[in-house]
Amino acid sequence: MGTMLLVALAVAAIGIIVAKLVRAGRREAQAEKARLAEGARRQARRSLDAVWSMDDRQFEEYVADLCRRDGCTDVKRVGGAGDLGADVTGLLPDGRRFVIQCKRYAKHRTVGSRDIQTFNGTARAEHGADIPVFVASCVFTKPARHFAAKHQLVLIDVNLLGFWKSGTTLTSFLRLDIGRSGTNRKLRPDHD
Fold it and tell me: Which residues are within 8 A (CB) of 84 and not within 5 positions of it... i.e. 6 or more apart?
């Protein structure tokens, strides 16, 4: 009986040790996954240094070129005075019409809800968009992201723009839950 009790205690102790090791391994794996994701976001941002040096027209052409690269057709840069929020238009590979509003702001700025609301008011009604897309070289505020999610607008912020530049296709961003993804934290300016 005493031997069985010792064996049972030894098995229980081994079980506790193994469980703790498994939990520690899971925590380490989650921490490594978070570190890798943050590294990918930093790399994507670094690859955007050229974007922040573009003027508005160059940024619109840049976005149009990304659309063409991804197989979109009839892509046109239409931005300018009186564009009513349409800077780039075209057709997705599946034939749906997209309208893109571009904002090339300094990385420490944000795009707020008012800009998103204005774009929402014209993208479908004035331009016939099936897919309204707002592309910014900075981040969107939390209220802007919530409004976009509610009204089914696609938002591509500085983080996603870096991934788009690196080869992720435009159609991949159409499935994102904008209300729950991304960040609304501003990036630091290059100067203090």
Answer: 122, 126, 127
pLDDT tens digits, one per residue of 58-109: 999 999 999 999 999 999 998 777 777 799 999 999 999 999 999 998 878 9
d(CA 141, CA 92): 27
Secondary structure in 3-state letters for the chain: CHHHHHHHHHHHHHHHHHHHHHHHHHHHHHHHHHHHHHHHHHHHHHCCHHHHCCCHHHHHHHHHHHHHHCCCEEEEECCCCCCCCCCEEEECCCCCEEEEEEECCCCCCEECHHHHHHHHHHHCCCCCCCEEEEEECCEECHHHHHHHHHCCCEEECHHHHHHHHCCCCHHHHCCCCCCCCCCCCCCCCCCC
Measure the CA–CA gap between 46 and 89, rounded to whole angstroms. Answer: 27
Assigned token pair, 63 = 């976005």
Report the distance separating Cα 19 and Cα 40, nearest Å.
32
